[in-house]
Amino acid sequence: MSDGTKARSGKGDASSPFDFAGVADREERERLLIEELRRTQRALAEAEIEIQQKQRAIAERAFEQEVADARSLLHAACWTADFDDEGNPTGFWFSDECRRVLGFESGEGFPENSENSDRFIAPDDLARINNEFRIAATEGGPYDVNYCVRRKGGRRMWVRAAAKFRRDEQGIARSCVGVFVDIDDAVKNQARQQQALEQALERADRACKV
Questions:
Q1: CA distances, 7 to each of 100, 166, 209 (Å)
Q2: pLDDT, tens digit, for every residue of 110-161?
Q3: Are 84 and 90 contacting, i.e. CB atoms less than 8 angstroms apart?
Q4: How is residue 87 annotated by DSSP?
Q5: What is the pLDDT of residue 17?
Q6: What is the DSSP secondary-structure string of the chain?
Q7: Model confidence over 8-40: pLDDT tens digits?
Q8: How many CB atoms lie within 10 A of CB 69?
Q9: Which of 19-23, 71-75, 87-91 has the weakest average pLDDT?
């Protein structure tokens, strides 16, 4: 076997992948070097893809654990959402506490999708809330809003909602986990304090005029 044949037969040897010194023909040596370079580039690309897949898997497991932890906190009003490939919400999950806050003692009659769940948001807040959620999901901004909801019996109450999004490598939202807090008493107390302050200012103003 000639030296050139030995070099070609051992071109894939990991211990000496670029050992083509025995190949006398310059063009043949260059061709073998180019083949080896392309093989190395393919191997690097495959390794990078594998690393990205493992990173996504780790991130997904971590997020799933966060969702599981949130769902296990039955005293907290938690909710989650899934998104399609365009970043549009396709479905929501609400904890038992979410249902209770909205007047449902069980899951019966409670909607589990975005279209029907909108009916709980007060009409004058619906467009603003949907727009802020869309911006947070598609543009990466924070989602932390206060708004009015209508409970099962029709009574209006104030709540605060916040969410954390999980995104893919293109930045598209794939899912999110959020909290839902009853702030009705705090908002109404603040409104009463503001009203009392305005009334005190009016009385002071009248006294000054007298």
A1: 76, 51, 106
A2: 766 555 667 788 888 889 998 999 889 888 878 999 999 888 878 888 988 8
A3: yes
A4: S
A5: 52
A6: --HHHHHHHTTT-TTSTT--TT---HHHHHHHHHHHHHHHHHHHHHHHHHHHHHHHHHHHHHHHHHHHHHHH-TTS-EEEEEE-TTS-EEEEEE-HHHHHHTT-SSSTT---SHHHHGGGB-HHHHHHHHHHHHHHHHH---EEEEEEEE-TTS-EEEEEEEEEEEE-TT--EEEEEEEEEE-HHHHHHHHHHHHHHHHHHHHHHHHHH-
A7: 444 444 444 556 667 677 787 788 888 888 888
A8: 11
A9: 71-75
Q: What are the structure tokens assigned to 152, written together?
A: 């099962």
- Look-up of token digits 């959620």: 133
